TrEMBL record:
Pfam families from the UniProt entry: ExbD (PF02472)
Transmembrane segments: 21-39
Entry membrane topology: Single-pass membrane protein
Gene3D superfamilies, sorted: 3.30.420.270
Keywords annotated in UniProt: Cell cycle, Cell division, Cell inner membrane, Cell membrane, Membrane, Transmembrane, Transmembrane helix
InterPro entries xrefs: ExbD, Tol-Pal_TolR
Species assigned in the record: Rhodanobacter panaciterrae
Keyword Cell division: yes
Protein family membership: Belongs to the ExbD/TolR family.
Subunit organization: The Tol-Pal system is composed of five core proteins: the inner membrane proteins TolA, TolQ and TolR, the periplasmic protein TolB and the outer membrane protein Pal. They form a network linking the inner and outer membranes and the peptidoglycan layer.
Protein name: Tol-Pal system protein TolR
Function according to Swiss-Prot or TrEMBL: Part of the Tol-Pal system, which plays a role in outer membrane invagination during cell division and is important for maintaining outer membrane integrity.
Cellular location(s): Cell inner membrane; Cell membrane
Amino acid sequence: MATLRRQKRYKLKSEINVVPYIDVMLVLLIIFMVTTPMMNSSVDVQLPQANAKSLQQKKDPVLVSVLQDGQLYLTLSGEKKELVDEDALKLKVGAFVRENPEVSVLVGGDERGAYGGVFKVLADLQQAGVAKVGLMGQPEQGKSTSNGRK
């Protein structure tokens, strides 16, 4: 009889205690729910709009024009356009932006020109210390539909 009691008392359970696993899964779920929005908020994408209105600015912007043949023209704060080369562009725009950090810098390129000319100007402006650059364009005339697409 004593041996029967020992066998019943020491009988192994074949059940798994799932309570700790549920606790761990709930903690992981909360961690993922909190961190997922933080990972997506670091991406700032501004999509172009078809019928965008012009920006209202307090100061005149710095305008950089890239012609079809690659010539660069610079207009500082409403002054006359002047023909510049890449080095002069870096120096003048860099100095002007350091004095007026809130001024906008806009780049306009001829649509018939090569993309490389505008790309080179954007790289030069970055080297000059310009943090934000806008691209200029003309609004479409009579080609838009009700949803803003061609």
